[in-house]
Amino acid sequence: MHIICNDTCHIGANLLVNISSAYDGCDSTCMLDVGDHDFVRHASYVFYAKAMIVKARGLKSGFDNGSIRTQAPLRDDVFTRVVEGINASPDTPLNISRYFNQL
Based on the structure, what is the number of domains in the chain? Predict the structure, then answer.
C-alpha cells in the first residue's frame, strides 16, 4: 500500500510513501500495527527510503483503469504520524525532504 501524503502541488505531483512489513532493523520512525488501518494486518512500517514523487495524471490514470485501487483514508492521527516521519526519518532521500518542505 502507498499513502498519498499531499494534495496535488503546483507542478502536478504527489508524494507517496510505502507501507511494508516490519522486521528487526527496519526504519522505526513510523511503525503501524493492526488497528491503524484495515490494510495493516501485522506490524508494519513506513518505508521512507522508497518514498517517491509521482505525477498526479499518472495516479489518475491508474485509478481510472483499475490498476490502482483506493483504500479507506487513514485516521487523522495516523496520517499525521506518517507525514511527520518524512522529516524525522534518517532514511528519507534528500530530494523527498526538499520537495515536501517546499509544499
Answer: 1
